[in-house]
Amino acid sequence: MSNIFLRVGKKIRLYRKANKLTQEELGEQIQIDYSYLGRIERGEVNITLETLSKIANALHIAPSQLLEDDKHYSNDKTKLEIMEKIDTTLISLSSKELEVLHRLIKDALMFKKL
Question: Alpha-carbon dihedral of residues 28, 30, 36, 42, nearest 10 degrees?
């Protein structure tokens, strides 16, 4: 299969695990067999936009997050891996917690400039 199917599948797995869901649990939520979900995560199948949307909704993310090309973030693999770890950590936080964290990051970056 194409590289895009593999990238999307990896992101689905990443967000599924960040939400502490098994393939069986996510499959039940979106009414697809867990073995098919496994094939999606391995990039072995071409999924429909409808299925992509159902998966994104169940994972509480925008469908575009599964399609984004990470190359615009960085060509540095280590940096990309760290960003993915941060992303999976943040996904479980509430809006209020994210706002507090955002303020802390901004303050920390201001000290860096000094």
Answer: -110
d(CA 114, CA 96): 28
Helix (H, G, I), strand (E, B), or coil: what is residue 67? helix
Place of tokens 């979106």: 30
Q: What is the C-alpha to C-alpha distance for residues 53 and 61, in angstroms, rounded to an integer? A: 9
What type of residue sits at position 40?
Answer: I
**Residue 14 contacts by C-beta under 8 Å, 6 or more apart in sequence?**
84, 87, 88
The whole model's pTM is what?
Answer: 0.67
- The owner of tokens 């895009």 is 4
Does residue 92 have a pLDDT over 90? no
